[in-house]
Amino acid sequence: MSKYLKFWGTRGSCAVSGPQYAKFGGNTSCLEVHYGQAHLIIDAGTGIRPLGEELMQRLQPLHLILSHTHWDHVIGFPFFEPLYSPLSEITIWSPAEDTKSCREIFNNLLRAEFFPVQLHELQAKLHFLTIQENTPIQIEPLTIHFHRAHHPSTTYCFKIQTPHQTIGYASDNELFKDYHGDLAHAPKDFGLVEFFTGCDLLIHEAQYFPDEYLQKVRWGHSSASNAAALVQKANIRRWMVVHHDPKHTDDDLHRLATLSQQLLDDHKIPCRSKWIGDGHVVSLI
Ligand SMILES: [Zn+2]
Ligand SMILES: [Zn+2]
After folding, report:
1. What is the Cα–Cα distance from 244 to 93, expressed in whole angstroms?
2. Which listed ligand is nearest to 155 at the C-alpha?
3. Distance of CA 152 from the midpoint of ligand 2 (Å)
4. The predicted structure's pLDDT at residue 191
5. pLDDT higher for 101 or 281?
6. Are the C-beta atoms of residues 246 and 12 closer than 8 Å to each other?
7. Bridge partners of 240?
8. Is the pTM of this model over 0.90?
Protein backbone atom coordinates (compact mmCIF):
# COMPACT_ATOMS: atom_id res chain seq x y z
CA MET A 1 0.00 0.00 0.00
CA SER A 2 1.86 3.13 -1.14
CA LYS A 3 -0.88 5.72 -0.64
CA TYR A 4 -1.94 6.17 2.93
CA LEU A 5 -2.01 8.28 6.08
CA LYS A 6 -0.84 6.74 9.33
CA PHE A 7 -1.41 8.43 12.66
CA TRP A 8 1.61 7.66 14.86
CA GLY A 9 0.74 10.14 17.62
CA THR A 10 -2.70 11.59 18.33
CA ARG A 11 -2.28 13.03 21.83
CA GLY A 12 -1.90 16.76 22.34
CA SER A 13 0.15 18.81 24.78
CA CYS A 14 1.85 15.99 26.70
CA ALA A 15 2.39 12.26 26.16
CA VAL A 16 0.45 9.93 28.46
CA SER A 17 0.39 6.22 29.27
CA GLY A 18 -1.68 3.84 31.36
CA PRO A 19 -4.64 1.50 30.99
CA GLN A 20 -7.11 4.41 30.88
CA TYR A 21 -5.48 5.52 27.58
CA ALA A 22 -5.07 2.06 26.03
CA LYS A 23 -7.50 2.51 23.15
CA PHE A 24 -6.52 5.94 21.81
CA GLY A 25 -2.88 5.84 22.90
CA GLY A 26 -0.59 8.45 24.35
CA ASN A 27 2.02 9.52 21.79
CA THR A 28 2.03 13.20 20.80
CA SER A 29 1.49 14.55 17.28
CA CYS A 30 2.94 12.68 14.33
CA LEU A 31 1.27 11.86 11.03
CA GLU A 32 2.88 9.95 8.16
CA VAL A 33 1.71 10.75 4.64
CA HIS A 34 2.91 8.33 2.00
CA TYR A 35 1.74 9.01 -1.52
CA GLY A 36 3.69 7.39 -4.35
CA GLN A 37 7.18 8.90 -4.30
CA ALA A 38 6.25 11.53 -1.71
CA HIS A 39 6.96 10.58 1.89
CA LEU A 40 6.03 13.24 4.42
CA ILE A 41 6.00 13.30 8.18
CA ILE A 42 3.83 15.95 9.78
CA ASP A 43 5.06 16.94 13.24
CA ALA A 44 7.69 15.27 15.39
CA GLY A 45 5.92 14.47 18.65
CA THR A 46 6.73 11.23 20.49
CA GLY A 47 4.91 9.29 17.75
CA ILE A 48 7.87 9.87 15.43
CA ARG A 49 10.05 7.53 17.53
CA PRO A 50 8.30 4.25 16.58
CA LEU A 51 7.87 5.58 13.02
CA GLY A 52 11.66 6.07 12.87
CA GLU A 53 12.25 2.47 13.92
CA GLU A 54 10.06 1.28 11.07
CA LEU A 55 11.65 3.64 8.53
CA MET A 56 15.11 2.22 9.24
CA GLN A 57 13.94 -0.83 7.28
CA ARG A 58 13.14 1.30 4.20
CA LEU A 59 15.24 4.48 4.19
CA GLN A 60 14.33 6.97 1.50
CA PRO A 61 14.31 10.80 1.21
CA LEU A 62 11.84 12.27 3.69
CA HIS A 63 10.18 15.62 4.26
CA LEU A 64 9.41 16.53 7.88
CA ILE A 65 6.89 19.37 8.06
CA LEU A 66 6.23 21.02 11.42
CA SER A 67 3.00 22.84 12.15
CA HIS A 68 4.91 24.68 14.90
CA THR A 69 7.67 24.02 17.37
CA HIS A 70 5.86 23.64 20.70
CA TRP A 71 7.22 20.74 22.77
CA ASP A 72 4.49 18.25 21.90
CA HIS A 73 5.37 18.63 18.19
CA VAL A 74 9.16 18.36 18.44
CA ILE A 75 9.90 16.29 21.56
CA GLY A 76 10.31 13.08 19.53
CA PHE A 77 12.80 14.60 17.08
CA PRO A 78 16.00 13.60 18.92
CA PHE A 79 14.71 10.01 19.11
CA PHE A 80 14.05 9.69 15.36
CA GLU A 81 16.48 6.95 14.37
CA PRO A 82 16.99 7.95 10.68
CA LEU A 83 18.77 11.11 11.95
CA TYR A 84 21.66 8.88 12.98
CA SER A 85 22.12 7.16 9.60
CA PRO A 86 24.42 8.63 6.92
CA LEU A 87 22.08 7.03 4.38
CA SER A 88 19.19 9.34 5.38
CA GLU A 89 18.27 12.57 3.67
CA ILE A 90 15.63 14.67 5.44
CA THR A 91 14.24 18.06 4.45
CA ILE A 92 12.83 19.86 7.49
CA TRP A 93 10.16 22.49 6.89
CA SER A 94 9.36 24.62 9.91
CA PRO A 95 7.83 27.94 10.82
CA ALA A 96 10.43 30.38 12.05
CA GLU A 97 10.08 33.37 14.32
CA ASP A 98 11.36 36.71 13.04
CA THR A 99 14.68 36.45 14.80
CA LYS A 100 15.44 32.75 14.42
CA SER A 101 15.93 30.51 11.39
CA CYS A 102 14.61 26.97 11.23
CA ARG A 103 18.16 25.60 11.70
CA GLU A 104 18.71 27.78 14.80
CA ILE A 105 15.51 26.47 16.38
CA PHE A 106 16.76 22.89 15.98
CA ASN A 107 20.22 23.87 17.14
CA ASN A 108 18.63 25.17 20.36
CA LEU A 109 16.47 22.07 20.72
CA LEU A 110 19.61 19.91 20.75
CA ARG A 111 21.76 22.12 22.95
CA ALA A 112 23.98 20.27 25.40
CA GLU A 113 21.79 21.33 28.35
CA PHE A 114 18.88 19.40 26.87
CA PHE A 115 20.31 16.45 24.92
CA PRO A 116 23.64 14.61 24.66
CA VAL A 117 23.85 14.73 20.85
CA GLN A 118 24.09 18.11 19.12
CA LEU A 119 22.69 19.00 15.73
CA HIS A 120 26.07 19.00 13.97
CA GLU A 121 26.73 15.47 15.22
CA LEU A 122 23.70 13.97 13.46
CA GLN A 123 24.76 11.83 10.52
CA ALA A 124 21.76 12.26 8.21
CA LYS A 125 21.94 14.78 5.41
CA LEU A 126 19.62 17.55 6.65
CA HIS A 127 18.11 20.50 4.79
CA PHE A 128 16.29 23.25 6.72
CA LEU A 129 13.65 25.33 5.00
CA THR A 130 11.22 27.90 6.36
CA ILE A 131 7.47 27.65 5.74
CA GLN A 132 5.97 30.81 4.30
CA GLU A 133 2.26 31.46 4.30
CA ASN A 134 0.91 31.92 0.76
CA THR A 135 3.87 29.99 -0.67
CA PRO A 136 2.77 26.42 -1.40
CA ILE A 137 5.42 23.74 -1.59
CA GLN A 138 5.54 21.01 -4.19
CA ILE A 139 6.65 17.54 -3.25
CA GLU A 140 5.69 15.52 -6.31
CA PRO A 141 2.91 14.59 -6.75
CA LEU A 142 1.66 16.60 -3.75
CA THR A 143 1.11 20.33 -3.28
CA ILE A 144 0.94 21.68 0.26
CA HIS A 145 -0.67 25.02 1.11
CA PHE A 146 -0.28 26.82 4.44
CA HIS A 147 -2.47 29.16 6.47
CA ARG A 148 -1.74 30.70 9.88
CA ALA A 149 -3.57 28.92 12.68
CA HIS A 150 -5.08 30.59 15.73
CA HIS A 151 -2.54 29.38 18.24
CA PRO A 152 0.28 30.95 20.29
CA SER A 153 3.57 31.34 18.35
CA THR A 154 3.83 30.96 14.60
CA THR A 155 1.66 27.96 13.79
CA TYR A 156 0.35 26.70 10.44
CA CYS A 157 -2.59 24.69 9.22
CA PHE A 158 -1.98 22.68 6.03
CA LYS A 159 -3.89 21.59 3.00
CA ILE A 160 -2.33 18.64 1.17
CA GLN A 161 -3.49 18.22 -2.42
CA THR A 162 -2.99 14.87 -4.10
CA PRO A 163 -4.06 14.23 -7.72
CA HIS A 164 -7.31 12.78 -6.32
CA GLN A 165 -8.15 14.48 -3.00
CA THR A 166 -7.45 17.34 -0.65
CA ILE A 167 -6.64 16.72 3.01
CA GLY A 168 -6.81 19.53 5.58
CA TYR A 169 -4.72 19.41 8.77
CA ALA A 170 -4.97 21.61 11.85
CA SER A 171 -3.65 19.97 15.01
CA ASP A 172 -3.61 23.12 17.14
CA ASN A 173 -6.17 25.74 16.26
CA GLU A 174 -8.54 27.76 18.45
CA LEU A 175 -11.60 28.59 16.39
CA PHE A 176 -13.90 31.51 17.04
CA LYS A 177 -12.22 32.78 20.21
CA ASP A 178 -14.72 33.42 23.00
CA TYR A 179 -17.54 31.81 21.03
CA HIS A 180 -19.08 28.90 22.88
CA GLY A 181 -20.79 26.69 20.44
CA ASP A 182 -24.33 27.57 19.43
CA LEU A 183 -23.99 26.57 15.78
CA ALA A 184 -26.88 28.79 14.72
CA HIS A 185 -24.95 31.84 15.89
CA ALA A 186 -21.37 30.95 14.98
CA PRO A 187 -19.36 33.86 13.59
CA LYS A 188 -19.49 34.04 9.81
CA ASP A 189 -16.22 35.71 8.98
CA PHE A 190 -13.29 33.37 9.42
CA GLY A 191 -10.38 32.94 7.00
CA LEU A 192 -9.98 29.26 7.71
CA VAL A 193 -13.47 28.50 6.44
CA GLU A 194 -12.40 29.55 2.97
CA PHE A 195 -9.04 27.76 3.32
CA PHE A 196 -10.61 24.42 4.23
CA THR A 197 -13.66 24.57 1.97
CA GLY A 198 -13.34 21.83 -0.64
CA CYS A 199 -11.31 19.46 1.54
CA ASP A 200 -12.37 15.82 1.13
CA LEU A 201 -11.04 15.05 4.58
CA LEU A 202 -10.33 17.44 7.44
CA ILE A 203 -8.04 16.44 10.30
CA HIS A 204 -8.83 19.00 12.98
CA GLU A 205 -8.55 19.03 16.75
CA ALA A 206 -11.47 19.36 19.16
CA GLN A 207 -9.59 19.26 22.43
CA TYR A 208 -12.28 20.39 24.86
CA PHE A 209 -15.85 19.65 25.85
CA PRO A 210 -17.91 22.82 25.32
CA ASP A 211 -18.13 23.58 29.06
CA GLU A 212 -14.44 22.82 29.55
CA TYR A 213 -13.57 25.39 26.88
CA LEU A 214 -15.06 28.16 29.03
CA GLN A 215 -12.08 27.73 31.37
CA LYS A 216 -9.55 27.54 28.52
CA VAL A 217 -10.41 30.39 26.21
CA ARG A 218 -7.26 31.67 24.46
CA TRP A 219 -5.20 28.59 25.30
CA GLY A 220 -5.02 27.91 21.55
CA HIS A 221 -7.38 24.92 21.21
CA SER A 222 -10.94 24.39 20.04
CA SER A 223 -14.00 23.00 21.74
CA ALA A 224 -15.81 20.18 19.95
CA SER A 225 -18.72 22.52 19.22
CA ASN A 226 -16.50 25.24 17.75
CA ALA A 227 -14.70 22.71 15.55
CA ALA A 228 -18.14 21.42 14.45
CA ALA A 229 -19.00 24.97 13.38
CA LEU A 230 -15.95 25.03 11.08
CA VAL A 231 -16.95 21.64 9.67
CA GLN A 232 -20.41 23.01 8.95
CA LYS A 233 -19.23 26.24 7.34
CA ALA A 234 -16.53 24.61 5.22
CA ASN A 235 -18.93 21.84 4.08
CA ILE A 236 -16.66 19.09 5.32
CA ARG A 237 -18.06 15.56 4.90
CA ARG A 238 -15.33 13.62 6.65
CA TRP A 239 -13.72 14.88 9.86
CA MET A 240 -10.98 13.13 11.81
CA VAL A 241 -10.11 14.40 15.27
CA VAL A 242 -6.60 14.33 16.77
CA HIS A 243 -4.62 16.15 19.48
CA HIS A 244 -6.57 14.72 22.40
CA ASP A 245 -6.26 16.38 25.78
CA PRO A 246 -3.86 14.49 28.10
CA LYS A 247 -6.50 14.56 30.85
CA HIS A 248 -9.06 12.80 28.66
CA THR A 249 -9.23 9.05 29.17
CA ASP A 250 -10.60 6.62 26.59
CA ASP A 251 -14.03 6.96 28.25
CA ASP A 252 -13.88 10.76 28.02
CA LEU A 253 -12.93 10.59 24.33
CA HIS A 254 -15.82 8.22 23.61
CA ARG A 255 -18.19 10.70 25.29
CA LEU A 256 -16.70 13.62 23.35
CA ALA A 257 -16.94 11.70 20.07
CA THR A 258 -20.58 10.81 20.70
CA LEU A 259 -21.46 14.35 21.72
CA SER A 260 -19.83 15.80 18.59
CA GLN A 261 -21.52 13.44 16.14
CA GLN A 262 -24.82 14.15 17.90
CA LEU A 263 -24.22 17.87 17.43
CA LEU A 264 -23.59 17.38 13.72
CA ASP A 265 -26.67 15.15 13.34
CA ASP A 266 -28.93 17.52 15.33
CA HIS A 267 -27.99 20.34 12.97
CA LYS A 268 -28.38 18.11 9.90
CA ILE A 269 -24.72 18.57 8.98
CA PRO A 270 -23.92 15.66 6.63
CA CYS A 271 -20.49 14.89 8.07
CA ARG A 272 -19.09 11.74 9.67
CA SER A 273 -16.68 12.44 12.50
CA LYS A 274 -14.14 10.00 13.87
CA TRP A 275 -11.90 10.30 16.93
CA ILE A 276 -8.56 8.85 15.87
CA GLY A 277 -6.09 6.89 18.01
CA ASP A 278 -2.41 6.03 17.59
CA GLY A 279 -1.75 3.53 14.79
CA HIS A 280 -4.82 4.34 12.73
CA VAL A 281 -4.28 4.01 8.97
CA VAL A 282 -6.35 5.65 6.22
CA SER A 283 -5.96 4.39 2.63
CA LEU A 284 -5.81 7.09 -0.03
CA ILE A 285 -6.78 6.80 -3.67
ZN1 LIG B 1 0.06 20.71 20.21
ZN1 LIG C 1 0.98 24.22 20.30
Report:
1. 24
2. 2
3. 7
4. 74
5. 281
6. yes
7. 203, 274
8. yes
Q: What is the pLDDT of residues 150-203, one digit of tens each?
A: 999 899 999 999 999 999 999 999 987 666 666 666 666 567 999 999 999 999
User: pLDDT per residue over 43-52, tens digit each?
Assistant: 999 999 999 9
Residue 237 Cα to chain centre, angstroms: 19
What the chain holds in terms of domains, given with CATH numbers, is: 3-132+141-283 (3.60.15.10)
Cis peptide before 141 (omega within 30 of 0): yes
Distance 180 CA to ligand 2 centre (A): 21
Cα dihedral across residues 6, 277, 238, 198: positive or negative: negative
Residue 128's contacts (CB-CB under 8 Å, 6 or more residues apart) are: 92, 94, 101, 102, 103, 106
Model confidence at 273: pLDDT above 80: yes
**Helices and strands, counts by H and E, the chain:** 7, 14
Query: From ligand 2's centre to the CA of 207, what distance in Å?
Result: 12
Cβ atoms of residues 183 and 231 within 8 Å: no
b vs e for 105-136, b when ≥16 Cβ sit within 10 Å of the residue's Cβ?
A: bbeebbeeeeeeeebeebebebebbbbeeeee
Q: Ligand 1 mean position to 156 CA, how many Å?
A: 11
